[in-house]
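Page 37, continued from 36.
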């Protein structure tokens, strides 16, 4: 099937809910992906942060192949060896005090579990979420997601949600009455453009939740597993939540989500109250076990810090050169460049033409979520392409095009 036929099939039969880039990818290894014509791309998109260990890592591929020949599905009502091995490895890495896990299939599902769990444990119904927060698009997760462009068409959503400005502990203190089940927060806001809070903010949120008898939920779907240069982004501020939501990279590319919680919180669920047919299936667990091995053996957390510092310095140098770049933000390999003009579509497509894939946030922020295995040479290639695109966009603005 030729490229145009492939595109036509998807456009004809798939729900039109994605803003498509005009490229068909067919292969990936590490940070490199290939299209149908054999063109190579540096992938700084990483499946929206999924390919943290790189595309098709050999150890993860081998684990998937081996498990596929043994057992692919095993419902949670039956014990399974692959699931047990994954849980043992996971709880060697989780923050102290988060002792129980619920396994599911995505970040939104992990958030849905967290919201239900908070209500179940506390007996209270209210929640406080943050302005510009993104927690997913299922009905519960969407209720905690701030942007009206996602919410408006589907209201009424779950009742009892209030939003306060992110990073403003005074506004949270004004809003928090103690009648809420939980406060839900991203340690670093991802979809809103890599927004890092004030240095003492997350610790103050933790203290305020304790004072008011309210649970703290940290959504680490995008920040977890080393993305920011620490295994958990909340570690940067010495905070352990009551509930933590994980997903994106944990399955090594296979869909998986995890909700972690303190034992007394998770044990409030009664049998049958929250289950998933595919949650914790052997294939996902085998892939996730291999991913955790790679994360530790290849020191990917340390690589995120080292390569992230290098990448951020390159982006900062471009900011100094081009006035259209307002700000560079990020920790580890979770980075963003905010532009002064609404140019992201032009820049993303310009980067694509130069064989580099990047993300965006809104109309004016570029995002970079590359695999943690990215090399300095690949970072250089991406930044050279960005320099050329910014040069083109600056020239167009000056010419009034």
């Amino acid at each position: 099937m030729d490229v145009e036929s492939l595109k036509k099939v998807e456009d004809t039969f798939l729900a039109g809910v994605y803003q498509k880039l005009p490229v068909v990818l067919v292969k990936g290894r590490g940070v490199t992906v290939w299209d149908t014509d054999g063109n190579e791309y540096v992938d700084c998109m990483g499946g929206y942060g999924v390919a943290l260990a790189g595309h098709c890592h050999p150890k993860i591929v081998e684990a998937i192949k081996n498990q596929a020949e043994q057992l692919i599905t095993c419902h949670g009502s039956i014990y399974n060896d692959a699931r047990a091995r994954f849980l043992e490895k996971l709880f060697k890495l989780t923050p102290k005090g988060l002792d129980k896990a619920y396994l599911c299939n995505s970040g939104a599902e992990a958030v849905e579990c967290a919201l239900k769990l908070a209500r179940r444990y506390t007996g209270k119904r209210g929640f406080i979420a943050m302005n510009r927060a993104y927690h997913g698009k299922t009905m519960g997760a969407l209720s905690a997601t701030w942007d009206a462009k996602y919410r408006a068409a589907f209201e009424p959503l779950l009742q009892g949600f209030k939003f306060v400005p992110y990073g403003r502990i005074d506004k949270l203190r004004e809003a928090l009455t103690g009648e809420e089940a939980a406060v839900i927060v991203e340690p670093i806001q991802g979809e809103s453009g890599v927004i890092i809070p004030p240095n003492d903010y997350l610790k103050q949120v933790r203290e305020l939740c304790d004072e008011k008898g309210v649970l703290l939920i940290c959504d680490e779907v995008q920040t977890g597993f080393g993305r920011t240069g620490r295994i958990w982004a909340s570690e940067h501020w010495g905070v352990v939540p009551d509930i933590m939501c994980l997903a994106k990279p944990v399955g090594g590319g296979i869909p998986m989500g995890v909700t972690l919680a303190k034992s007394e919180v998770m044990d409030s669920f009664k049998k049958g109250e929250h289950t998933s047919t595919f949650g914790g299936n052997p294939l996902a667990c085998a892939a996730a076990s291999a991913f955790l091995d790679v994360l530790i053996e290849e020191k990917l957390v340390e690589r995120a810090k080292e390569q992230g510092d290098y990448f951020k310095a390159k982006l900062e140098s471009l900011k100094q050169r081009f006035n259209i770049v307002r700000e560079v933000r990020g920790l580890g390999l979770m980075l963003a460049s905010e532009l002064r003009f609404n140019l992201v579509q032009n820049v993303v497509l310009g980067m694509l033409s130069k064989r580099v894939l990047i993300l965006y946030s809104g109309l004016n922020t570029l995002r970079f979520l590359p695999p943690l295995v990215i090399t300095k040479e690949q970072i250089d290639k991406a930044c050279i392409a960005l320099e050329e695109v910014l040069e083109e966009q600056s020239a167009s603005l000056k010419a009034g095009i």
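The domain at 58-297 is CATH 3.40.640.10 (Aspartate Aminotransferase; domain 2). Flag for discussion at group meeting. Residues 45 and 358 are 5 Å apart (CA to CA).
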